[in-house]
């Protein structure tokens, strides 16, 4: 049975200098860059919206991210079989209920 893909669009927005800086959902700091990413109804630094598995910057890879068990993944990692690393992360995340990853 084919599973339905959970994909979400990523928008790159330019930050207007006269607006209040938005908080980044990845690192919780204010985004003072010229551009920010909007995904999952949250704002992100370009550096902070990364695949939880391979660390690639999702704003560069394409304009789509995928989620699985609260992990944010690139298409490649979403589609392949997830290894032990991700399984551990999923267990961890289900415990803490957060999208933040411990390194
Ligand atoms: Zn950030
Ligand atoms: Zn990846």
Automatic annotation (TrEMBL):
Pfam families the record matches: LIM
Keyword Transcription regulation part of the UniProt annotation: no
PROSITE patterns (alphabetical): LIM_DOMAIN_1, LIM_DOMAIN_2
A GO CC term attached to the entry: nucleus
Keyword Disulfide bond: no
GO biological process, one term: positive regulation of transcription by RNA polymerase II
Chain ranges of the LIM zinc-binding domain: 22-84
InterPro entries attached to this UniProt entry: LMO_RBTN_TF, Znf_LIM
Example of a GO MF term: DNA-binding transcription factor binding
Protein name, UniProt field: LIM domain only protein 3
Species annotation: Camelus dromedarius
